[in-house]
What we know:
The chain is mainly α.
Amino acid sequence: MALSLWFTFFVACIVFSVSPGAGTVASISNSLNVGFKTAVKGIVGLQLALISHLLIVSFGLGALLTSSATAFTVIKYLGAAYLIYVGVSKILAAKKAQIGAEAGDVNPKALIRQCYIVNIMNPKSIIFLAAFLPQFIDPLQAMVEQYLILGATVVFVDTCVMLGYTIMASVAKPYLTSPSTMKALNRVFGSLFVSMGVLLARAEQ
């Protein structure tokens, strides 16, 4: 793959990852509630979902999702329902007297699983990648190697961006630790998850 082509793809990945989405909200919310080190485990879940999306696209299943209105609708509503569930849970948690869960109280596997589901149940991401990746693939060159290079670039960039959001939230956390502020933030992030769920449910293929 030509370096100039890869660099164009690299810049496009940065724009794709920096754009706020459910993963961004999850990373910031986790960092504020359970701390940076624990929130990093959530990023692992986000990237495992992104790798799953890349595999789906690489094996051609993304084309099926793009062409099948039924498959798109089913995954869309499942993803929307889960985002709304996460949002409502955060809003209800905001009513508790406890400021936030301590890192030791959080099950890392549960956090990874939650973030994985948040990211995996987004058909628009698969369709975007299905339309985006082939533009940088040379059919005359080895396909597997090209998909590996592009996939590794997507995951690397998204990991760095999510870490950046998590670090920023961690830096801001000492100024946001009052009980009233934390409760308000939980309500805000809960509302954002619910809003994203509603937007996803209303999305067209």
